[in-house]
């Protein structure tokens, strides 16, 4: 019973998911915990991780002292930020080993099982990531203000900009622009006040409405969705130019935007072989070191 | 000596300027005070206003008790915000009358001496404003996040977005993108950290560099300046479509962008007849009421 077990952890802003497999890849158990964005307080993040882990252990009929033979891998948003990783790794953990990498990296590991390929995440934000011949490349994903093209937040902000243009009379109003201005009592001051407090996730809530109007051939809806798809395509093309033979897409907007991509791109999108949690299992397995507090690839 | 005097006040974020004229329009004196953005503490704003006013009064050889025959007009950024105006007007003032309006309105009043016309302000932010047949129209100027097209802040943010694209390999690097990335130690993480703290005025500081590279035919510089001029033109065209016979431009970027506008637009740009402070004098003169704490046009 001294054989290693492998735990994959997916660390997100609202929850933490964990999956335990044995060396042969058999599923032993799964669990969930609280927020585990690694920019949060490290004690909170560790509590979330260990809650998810212990639930998976308990499902597997294992005990607390089995933690010592668990090799854990975690994919987490924000793990590209060295200071956040250092803060997390400043705490003791009970595992045989613990490695952490970006959520993009574990998504890629799962999707291509470590082979050449690229992923494109399009949700509230957007990010492209590929690995070719062991070389990692990020394309996009540098944040809402100057990056995250094609994302829900970008679509929402572009929408509100055009709603203002329509109010000013710079472009024709459409059913979509009228509907949104109506939400703000037809008063741009109310809209501007809302913008003053809006976060990317607030803007992103408009993406489904934009898609819905685009499907009803609203000119503004069509323009915004086409623009988002063009920007998503630009990121995808760069990843392919870097040598990625195929693409996997993730995030709530990837599927809705897919039919708007140029057909030669659509044809290169393949289903992921495994999810990001199994990508994290693979991260745990392939990490060379068995020591504590390792942090590879950063 | 019971004849009214007319005081024009230009209220800005860093200083307050005042000019005193008699009923015939003769210049009696000028003065300056501290910050008078009306979103600031009203007691501070009134101190700035009265400092500027007393300096002008003293230049004119007048006394404190002459304040009672001064009719004052003020143009101020933020005066479109009713709550800020109400806060300012909650304090007593020593004038025979006091009226306040937006800085765009007093700029227009000065530029066209109350006649039909439109103004376009392009600096850190941007804003279009016109009055035709007594009807006021704002075009643009709804803030950095979803408006202020063609402004210095918009140029700077677009620049940084493209610097990231060049870093990612999505577009070719140029001398301009290389120079800017070099300012951030060639590290996009450093750039992203900067963006996290940047205000519109920080982005706007890149506008002169973009213009300089555009004049050296840098492809990225050319694209950004052309785009800003197109957006400035879009605002100008809307104001002309609304019936404005001519345009006056203000702000640090108006002159540099002017040669990039379509010639038919350039031909409609005329010099202002008077400045915004004399626009505020006109505001004081033409306001119907002599009572206290009047706030016209809002």
UniProtKB/TrEMBL annotation, chains A, B:
Gene Ontology molecular functions: kinase activity
Record's keyword terms, sorted: Kinase, Transferase
Signal sequence extent: none
Cross-referenced Pfam families: BcrAD_BadFG (PF01869)
Domain of life: Bacteria
Family annotation (InterPro entries): ATPase_BadF, ATPase_NBD, Euk-type_GlcNAc_Kinase
Domain ATPase BadF/BadG/BcrA/BcrD type: 7-284
SUPFAM superfamilies, sorted: Actin-like ATPase domain
Protein name: Glucosamine kinase
Lineage: Bacteria, Pseudomonadati, Pseudomonadota, Alphaproteobacteria, Hyphomicrobiales
